[in-house]
Structures are given as C-alpha cells and as structure tokens.
Hints:
By secondary structure, this protein is an alpha+beta fold. Helix content is about 30%, strand content about 20%. The chain is globular and about 45 Å long. It comes from Recurvomyces mirabilis.
Amino acid sequence: MSRSEFVDCVHPVYERIELYDAKSVPTDQPKNDAADGVKALPQGFIDAMIVREEVFVREQNIALENELDEDDQRSFHWVAYASLPAKHTSPEIAAQGANGKNNAARRISNSTKIPIGTIRLVPPPHAPHSDASGDSINDTTESQNEDRKDSSVAHDPKESYIKLGRLAVIKEFRKAGISKLLIETALSFAREHHYVFSPNHDPAKFEASKQLSDRGVTLDWKGLVLVHAQTGVQKIWRKYGFETDTTMGEWDEEGIMHVGMWRRMDIGRRKSKAFHIGSPLASP
C-alpha cells in the first residue's frame, strides 16, 4: 500500500474548546459544525481527537468524556497524516459520508488524508508536582531534592517546564516510525520557538500565571521537558533522552500506571521575541 506521512501543527484553540462536546465522538460535533468557519475548531484539532478516541478510548478503554482535559485548550497539537488511495478508505467512514451524518465525517470520507497519529505540548505554567508520597515536590527536604537530582535530569523542582503527552498512533501504523516523527517534530518546535513558552503577560494574566506556577518562582523556560509516560512505553521515551524520575513514583491515570520522565534540552541563545498569551480566533 502506497503511503506518505506528513505532520500539521495546531496552535492553542483557547475558548473555542467550548464548541467541543467531550461526551460525543470527534466526528459528531454539531455545535462546532454549526459555528462560523473562523470561530470553529480547526480540523486538525478534530483529527487529533479522532486518533485519541481510537487509541485511548476504544483500545485502552478510557472513558470518552475523560479524554478531553483542561490542558487541551492551551496546548500545541501535532497530527500525522497518511495519504492513501481513495479505494482504501474504510467502509465505515465512507458510509458515514454517504449517509450525511455530519460535516466532519464527510470531510474525512472525501479525502485520502487520514489522521494516524498525534502528540501535544502543554506550555508553562504548571501546578506543582507530587512525589510518590503525595507531597508537593516544592515541599520536599534538601536531602530529597538531592536524591531527585541524582535519579533524573538535574533541575530545581520549581523550575518551569513544558510537558509532552497524548502520544497516540493508530495500530496499523505503529511500525512506520510515526511516534519518532511526532516526538522529534514537537521537540524541534520547542527548541526553535522556545520564546513562546516564556510569554510577556499583561499584569493581570502575569499575576494569574504566577499563582499557578508556585507563586512565580520562575516562568522562564530553560529547556526542561516532562512526560507522564505509561509504564509500558518508557523505553520509547528513553530513546529521546528522557529519564525516569523514581522520586515521583508511579500513579494511576484512568486505570493505566504512569511515571514521570524528564529531559533537558539545549535551546541555545535566548530570543527576545514576545509571545502574548491570548485567544486569537484566527490562530491556525
């Protein structure tokens, strides 16, 4: 089967997330379909949710309404696509388009551009993390902090970081290097556009961010990256320089055990370009 993969980036959707019904499948979003084209969620975001619903909801049995979370509105998403001949379009998708169920289904059925993988990047600020005992990492002793530095990427527990997650690839394509493509694309974006993670806020937004980021000890991103990895896929993340933080222990997310893994990126010389956090309806 002839295939060619490529990746699209979806910028944060902000308040447009209100058009998405977390209790309905991604291809059944009438509120979003009825919205003006400029104000509607970009198709790339819907495609990311299509992949996540297939992998996390159908395959891993995560509750549909729990798949969308509070970080999705402010995250950058990447979606990998495969270009397939029209004759390979699944009968199920073709039937949805023929029956005219919704615009999203018709858009998929009329195109050979099929979403097959996704990943997201959540920028700072983040709430304080907890270690295996349930204590905030910002409340640990000096000795415990030294243990953390010895067991993972050395960093101040209060340092600003970005978080990668929701890595998902449709089962049929898991040996095609899609995970590698998505991870490297997201990390490259972070390295080349790191100034977007150290925004200049207006006073009110800056103060709100300080409160979320441990009273604003720092909002300056210096290359620290966190992954909440499923325990069974730690080896994938290790290939990209991530190290498991044993002090964070293991925890259950939707019935699946996770661990924290860190990586320090070299982001080179700091850029001075400002990036204002807001909610531009026209963002791609």
